[in-house]
Task: structure prediction
Amino acid sequence: MKLSKKVWLIVVIVIFAVVLGVLFFIYSGQAKERDQLNDRMSLARTLLPGLTDNRQDKEDELTQAESLLAANQAQFPEVVESIEYGEDFFKIAYGQNLYTMAAGCGVDLTGLTASKPTNKEVGPVTYSVSSFTVKVSGSIDNILKFIDAIGTGIDYEPTWSFQLPWSVDVKSINMDVGGGSGLATVKLDIYGYKR
Result:
């Protein structure tokens, strides 16, 4: 069976139309995707300056926050490095700590530094010894009461007192007084029994 030229022409035109339709469909999909990408890029270009400014503002805020943190950390007492003395010194009998001891005596604890503990043998007993520098402020009477409390190992509360579970050797006291109030720097060694 021989096809006529007209039939061949129609077949070629149909194939050509199908190919053109497929190409048009692919092209229109790509054109739509390209338009969406261009819209996104345009939006990104519009937002970029604002985001850049926002990032710079946030970096400035971070720098200010870090400097504020450093300034505030400088105002607080240094951390006591010894975990043993963190427990012994800050968990004074019945859950009290040095801060509440100071508050119980009516003074403010403004500084605290400590050395690493060392071992000291007294006869058959080994003690852990650490040197502390404690700074307090308040009225002269209250500062003396606080010095007495840490020197004698007795913690004064408004309604009761108790013996603390460690021994203290007060090495030196430096007081700066004026107008009924003062500042005191107390250097002391704390002896804790090693188990």
